[in-house]
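Researcher: Here's a chain I'd like modeled. Treat it as a single chain, no partners, no ligands.
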Amino acid sequence: MMTSQQKLETILSRYEGVAADLIPVLQDVQDEFNYLPKDELKIVAGRLQVSLTRVYSVATFFKMFSLEPRGKHLIRVCLGTACHLRGGQHLVETVGRRLNVEPGHATEDLQFSLETVGCLGSCAQAPLMMIDAKYFGRMAVDKVPKILKPYKQ
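Model: Modeled as a single isolated chain. Structure tokens:
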């Protein structure tokens, strides 16, 4: 089994080591570790010859990146206008209570992460929730247990 250092070296070896590689490198690190570990970000900054401040600036600007460990399954609940008006916030609260997790964090067992988003692009289906790449439209709080069940393993 490869160490985290070896995994990072494998990622960095695929790039030229210039500042323009920052976002693709961060994407690969995120894919490999399921978040952006601090120690690895320091190495990335050094190898790409960019400041650690710039690395963190990029990592915190884009919603796709996380500085905290993420769960195996990513749950996104839309809080855009249509979803908010149709109960999106109640949906967030229900999922959070059921999994014992706050938005922006992962469950203790790292099975789930819960995030809120501004729009999932399907307002006619409001309120909308996503688990990984699967959409669940016209959500109601009473549907949450049934939807979560197959993901709990």
